[in-house]
Design goal:
Blueprint lengths: L1 E2 L6 H11 L4 E2 L3 E2 L14 E2 L2 H9 L3 E7 L2 E6 H9 L4 E2 L1 E2 L1 H10 L6 E4 L3 H11 L4 H16 L6 E4 L3 H15 L3 H6 L4
Parallel strand pairs: 1-8, 1-9, 2-7, 3-4, 9-10
Antiparallel strand pairs: 3-6, 5-6
Length: about 190
C-alpha cells in the first residue's frame, strides 16, 4: 500500500511503478466525492452516493474505509480478494486512516509512506493542481499535518522531492518485496 498526504504525488508514483512493473495492479478505491473533470467511474474511483457507501460499509464490503476532507473513501473487498487469491500483486493508494485498517486486516501488506520535501512544497502542489477550492486545500493541509506525524508507523518512507529519485526508491522497495531484486535494481526511470 502507498499512503501519504493528499497532493504528495501518490498517483503519479504508482503510474510510474506500473510502467516498470506491469504485473502490479492498482485497486480502484470508492469515494463519495464528486468526479473531477476527466475522471471516469470505475477507473479513477468507484463514485458512490453517501447512502450507497454507508450501505456497503454496513454490509462489510470494505476492507478499509475512512472519512477524509469531508468525503468517504474506501477499498472494496471485491477489488482485492480475487487478485490476492491468484497471487497477483495489488497496490492500494490510500490515506493514513485506511492504511492503519489495512495493517490490521492484512498485516503482510507492504507499507510505503510518501512524504513531501516540505509542508510548503505540499501546499504549492495542492494549490498548483487546481482541483480543489481554497477551503478544501486548507482542510487537506490540516489533515496532512496529522498524517505527516504518522510517517514513523510505516515500514518505508520515500520523500517525493525529485520524481526520478522517488520512483527509483519505490522500484527498489517493490522489487525487493516481490522477490525480484534484479529487475528493481536494473529498472531505470526515464
Amino acid at each position: 500500500m502507498i499512503t501519504g498526504p493528499s497532493g504528495v504525488g501518490k498517483g503519479t508514483l504508482i503510474h510510474a511503478l506500473q510502467d516498470h512493473l506491469p504485473q502490479l495492479q492498482l485497486s480502484v478505491s470508492a469515494t463519495t466525492r464528486s468526479p473531477r473533470p476527466g475522471e471516469q467511474d470505475g477507473v479513477a474511483y468507484h463514485f458512490l452516493g453517501r447512502d450507497e457507501f454507508a450501505r456497503r460499509v454496513v454490509a462489510g464490503e470494505f476492507v478499509e474505509h475512512a472519512e477524509y476532507a469531508g468525503n468517504s473513501y474506501g477499498t472494496l473487498r471485491s477489488e482485492l480478494d480475487g487478485r490476492l487469491d491468484a497471487g497477483i500483486p495489488v497496490v492500494l493508494e490510500i490515506e493514513v486512516q485506511g492504511a492503519r485498517q489495512i495493517r490490521e486486516a492484512l498485516p503482510e501488506a507492504v507499507q510505503v509512506f510518501i512524504a513531501p520535501p516540505s509542508r510548503e512544497a505540499l501546499r504549492e502542489r495542492l494549490v498548483g493542481r487546481g482541483t480543489d477550492p481554497p477551503e478544501q486545500v486548507v482542510r487537506r493541509l490540516e489533515t496532512a499535518d496529522d498524517e505527516l506525524a504518522a510517517r514513523g508507523e510505516f515500514s518505508y518512507v520515500v520523500v517525493n522531492d525529485r520524481l526520478e529519485d522517488a520512483v527509483a526508491q519505490l522500484l527498489e522497495i517493490v522489487g525487493r518485496e516481490l522477490g525480484d531484486d534484479e529487475s528493481a535494481a536494473s529498472a531505470q526511470y526515464s
